[in-house]
Amino acid sequence: xxVFNAAVIGTGRIGFxxxxxxxxxxxxxxxxxxxxxxxxKLVAGADINPENLQKFSDYYKIGKSHIYSDYRKMxxxxxxxxxxxxxxxxxxxxxxxxxxEQKNIKAVFLEKPPALNLKDAEYMLKLADxxxxxxxxxxxxxx
Length: 143
Fold this sequence. Notes:
- The structure is a single chain.
- Helix 4 packs parallel to helix 5 (118-130).
- The protein has helices at residues 30-36, 50-60, 71-77, 89-100, 118-130, and strands at residues 4-9, 40-46, 67-68, 82-85, 107-111, 134-138.
- The protein is built from five helices and six strands; from the N terminus they run E-H-E-H-E-H-E-H-E-H-E.
- It has a six-stranded parallel β-sheet with strand order 3-2-1-4-5-6, with helices on both faces.
- It is α/β, with parallel strands linked by helices and 143 residues long.
- It is globular, with a radius of gyration of 14 Å.
- The two termini are 23 Å apart.
């Protein structure tokens, strides 16, 4: 069985912090989905908010050497197969393009909306096709 290394960029609500809500009884974030699935190993996370990042690290017992304030360093230094982009929409295109440059990243799971406008979204799709990467957009969490 192949196990895919996964990382999350953006450890706020949908990336991680909704797991801390005691009213939620089911998996509701990217990080928890990777952590609970037998075919994935959550190996790293990145966020510009140090508090979110520390909580993420503590919760999943991911060592300090695998959490990053700069996603660029994470995707360069870590052996990541799949990355979730869970940051603010205005950052999606830049982060996505950086992920496309990394040979080891095979797939990107992107939060909605994928881009600020259709032109950027179409550019991102063409870039994924050119680099033969799989892309999924999380329009609905209940599937």
